[in-house]
Amino acid sequence: MTNTVTHTTDGDIAEALCDQVREAHASRTPLRIVGGDTRAFYGRPVEGQALNLAGHSGIVDYDPVELVVTVRAGTRLSALDAELAKNHQMLAFEPPAFGEASTIGGAVATGLSGPRRPWAGAARDFVLGTRVITQEGKLLRFGGEVMKNVAGYDFSRLMAGAQGTLGVLADISFKVLPLPSASHSLRLSMGIDDALKKLAELGRQPLPITAAAWHQDELFIRLEGGHSSVKATRERLGGDDLDASFWQQLRDHQHAFFTPNEGQVLWRLSLPPNTPPLALGIDDADMFYDWGGSQLWVKTSLDADTLRDACHTAGGHATCYTPYAQGGTQSPFTPLPSVVEKYHRNLKAELDAHGIFNPGRLYAAF
Length: 366
Known about the structure:
Number of domains: 3
Distance between the termini: 46 Å
Radius of gyration: 21 Å
Shape: globular
CATH architecture of the largest domain: 2-Layer Sandwich
Strand content: 15-25%
Largest sheet: 6 strands, antiparallel
Strand order of the largest sheet: 1-4-5-9-7-8
Number of strands: 18
CATH class of the largest domain: Alpha Beta
Structural class: alpha+beta
Helix content: 25-40%
């Protein structure tokens, strides 16, 4: 591991971005914030002038010893992952890429996390600080580069999942973690009822599990950690070896499951831990559990209300991943309760008074 800190100045177009935001604010011109555009399917379509962050790229600071990296929002995920790997480190929330052009800004803006999420934490849990372009075109810093620096820290976390509706992410500082010294993936044959019981049992024990999924009568588990711990757990669980690329295919929706048949729509159902199978009448082949059973992907022709009612009864929520133009619903995200919607509206009005940042991306009204 190197002790050096990386500083780069190439790829900094923050001032030009600020100028464009100032002009849009003054003329009340809506902006569609774009990076790699690999997540355009997620959320409602946005009509507006493109604010392209792809050119705002590069690593600003990286201190492997302190486990902190600061990177510009337009930096490609693949480039950041490669740089971290040189020092045997990683983004522990395992952000989905959905394509080579995928950027770190898009990963944070959507707030999506990969298979490791239940065991390591969500995207927002690793954001230490940000530089954000405000509605007035000002470049402001929030948070810092250590977890104990809480000044403005909550605002940085707020940007994770906001999909650019509250401001423009320019730079992001992350806590990174070491790559595990050992890793092994395996598969076990069992139905969904037995798989969920097995996962609940394993979840009560201190085992080195960092991913668990189920599809078509097969339970998939990833073990990561020290060599002796991984070896002992592998021998205990048994099963067949599984190629590690399975998790990347699941994370980036490259698995064959994620191609819906004609008339089907792809949904993500977020469920509380240990939720029994939902009585939706969906074939096993059209279901894919992730996150140890807390995230259920389904391909179905069922209507949005039916899915959301079932999720609500179980204590969860449902999100549509198929764009409206391809048969998805006009409202991909679960409608907000009135009190929560009020807070969302007030926050949007305070941070984006003229509604120029990705208007309608999350909900039609704001």
